[in-house]
Fold this sequence. Notes:
2 copies of one chain form a homodimer. By secondary structure, chain A is of the alpha+beta class. Chain A has 10 helices and 13 strands. Chain A has helices at 3-18, 64-80, 101-115, 167-175, 185-196, 202-209, 225-236, 251-259, 264-270, 286-296, and strands spanning 25-27, 34-36, 42-52, 85-95, 121-129, 133-143, 158-162, 217-220, 238-243, 277-281, 300-308, 313-316, 322-324. In chain A, the strands form 2 sheets. The first copy, chain A, has a 7-stranded mixed sheet with strand order 8-10-7-11-9-12-13, with helices on both faces. In chain A, strands 1-2-3-6-4-5 form a 6-stranded mixed sheet. In chain A, helix 4 (167-175) packs across helix 5 and helix 4 crosses helix 8 (251-259). The two termini of chain A are 21 Å apart. At the A-B interface, helix 1, strand 3, strand 4, helix 3 and strand 5 of A face helix 1, strand 3, strand 4, helix 3 and strand 5 of B.
Amino acid sequence: MKLSDLGEGGLIDLIRDWTSSRPPVVVGVGDDAAVLEIGGAEDLVISTDASVENVHFRTDIQPADEIGHRAMTGALSDLAAMGATGIAAFVALHAPPDAAVEFVHDLYRGMERVASPAGVQVAGGDTVRGALALDITVVGVVPRGRAVLRSGAREGDRLYVSGALGRSEAGRRLLSGEAAPGVPARFRSAAESGHRAPRPRFDVSELLMRLPRRPTAMIDVSDGLAIDLRRLCEASGVGCSVEVERVPVDDAARCIAEGEGRDPLSLALEGGEDWELLFAIGAEGAGDLEEAARRAGLSVSAIGRILARREGMALTREDGSRRELPLAGWDHFARRS
Amino acid sequence: MKLSDLGEGGLIDLIRDWTSSRPPVVVGVGDDAAVLEIGGAEDLVISTDASVENVHFRTDIQPADEIGHRAMTGALSDLAAMGATGIAAFVALHAPPDAAVEFVHDLYRGMERVASPAGVQVAGGDTVRGALALDITVVGVVPRGRAVLRSGAREGDRLYVSGALGRSEAGRRLLSGEAAPGVPARFRSAAESGHRAPRPRFDVSELLMRLPRRPTAMIDVSDGLAIDLRRLCEASGVGCSVEVERVPVDDAARCIAEGEGRDPLSLALEGGEDWELLFAIGAEGAGDLEEAARRAGLSVSAIGRILARREGMALTREDGSRRELPLAGWDHFARRS
C-alpha cells in the first residue's frame, strides 16, 4: 500500500501504533503536540511542523520572510492549542547550495518576527542541502497536568472559536488570482495580510488558561473548521452540532466569496491556516469565558455544542435544516479536496 | 552570496548571529545541542538532526530500517555528547506519496531500534509530501548546570576519544565497492555493521557524568576526528596536540585502508559517523577516568592534550615530526573534501 492510498490521517494512526506512549510521555503522537511530564511544576509541550516548497509555500510568489513567518506561526499555533507558553524553536533548514544567503536571512527574519513577540527563541536546528523546506520543532511549558488535549470534550459542552475564519483562504485566492476582480481595497488588504502574516493566538490561549473553568478540549484551525472540528470530536469520542449562522466568517472572506458566487461559509469550513482556536468548554464556564473575552477585547464566538457520539457531527440552520459536517479539508498525501 | 560559498560552518555562524540566546536558553545555536534552564533539578537538552536522501542516505543501497537506525543514532549522539539522558524524539518525515507504507514502517522500526534501548520514545512529529527526508529532534535532560559543552576545554586538559575510529567509513567503502577486494570476512562484517548499525555512546557519557571530575568539553565524532576536534578547540578558544600513534584506529578500518594503500589514520581523521565521543578532561581526573572505564569494560584512549590557542592544532609523531590538524571533513553546502 502507498502513502497516497492511506492518507495523512491513516499514516498518523499507523505511526501512533508503531510508537509508544508511556511515562514520561503523557501525550504522544496524535494531538496538536506531545506532553512530557519531566517532574517539577510544569510539563513540556513539544510539536513539530514541516513546511515544504510547493506544498506549503511557493518561492515564486511569496517572499522569504513571509515563508518563515507563516511556518513559525503554524508551529507555535500547536502550542497555543495546548494552552502552553512557548520557550524555544529548533529549525531544520533544507536549502539548495545555490540559495542566496540573503534569502535564508529573510526566512529567519520572518520566523523571528513571530517567535520573538511570543517569547520564543530559535535555539538550534540543523542545516542541510536539499529541496527547500523548514521543519520547526517548538518547545513550550504548561502547568503540570493542565495541557488542553483534543480529547476532553464532553456531551453538553459549548463549542467556541476565536476570531473570524476564512481570511487566510480569501487572501490566498486573491494573491493567486483565483478571486473575482472588484474586491474593495480594505478587504483586499485585510485578506492578504491575513494570509501573509497570521499570528498564533497565544492571547486567546492565555486568557482561556486563566479562567476558573478552562476548556475541556482545544485544537487550532489549521486545515479548516470542518476537518479540525471533526478531529476534536473524534479524539473526544463525541458528536457535535454547529449553528452555521453563528460561525464567524471574516468580513473580507465574505466579500471575496460573494464576489465569486460562493457560500462564504465554505471558506470558513474548508479554508484553513487561520490559526484560530476551536475549543469546547463546560456550559457552566461559558459566562465567565464570554465576560473575560469581552474585558480583554478578544473575540470568541459560541458556534454550537458537543453532543453524544451517536448524534453525529452536524451543521444546523435556523430554518431547522441539518446536514453532516463536510469531510473536506487538506490531506498532505491525498489530492486537494 | 550563495550558501555554497559560505559553507555549513559559515551559515551556522550567521544563524547564531541572527538568533538570540538569553534565559531560559543557556546554550543556543552552535553546540551539539541547545540547553534550556526551565527551573527544577534538570536542564533540557535539545538537538535537531536532518537526514536527506542522496546526502545522508541512499535508498538504492540501504534498507529503510538502516536509514532510520542511522538517522536516530546521529540525533541521539548529540545528546550523549552533552552528557544528557534522552527522553523523546520528534520525527518530521518527508516522503513521496508513492512511498510504500512498509518502507515507512521500516524507517520507524530502525529508529525505534536505537531509541528504545536508550529509553527514548518517538513522541510526535509531522508527515509531509516531499523528497525523502527524516528530521529528528531529540529531547533529553541533564542535572542543572552540568551539560558538557564544546567550549570548556582548558590548557593542560587531556584529550580522550571513546572506542575506535574509522569503522563506519571503512564499511561505507566496502558497501559502495570503493574498497579493494580481499578483505577478510570478520573485518568485512565488523565494518559493514559499524556503518549500518552504529549506536550513540550513552554508555560512555553516563560513565563520564558519574566521575568526580567530569569532562570539561565534549563533542561527538560525526564528521571525523580532525574536523570535530577543530570544532571543540575553536569553541574552547584553545589549541591541541594529538599523538597520532595513540589515535585508536578500528582493526577492520586499518585492514581495509591498508588494502587500498591508504594511511589507516586518514579514515579515523576524516571518516566520520563513528559517533564516538571526543572529550577533554582535567589532568587530575585522568586516572579516575581510566580506572572507571577499565572497570566498566569501556575503551577510552588518551590521544593528546589541550594547548594554548597560539600553539595551534597539531598532529605529532613519536619521531618528533609535527603537522597541522587537517581541515578535511564533511560540509553539507560545499563539495566533499
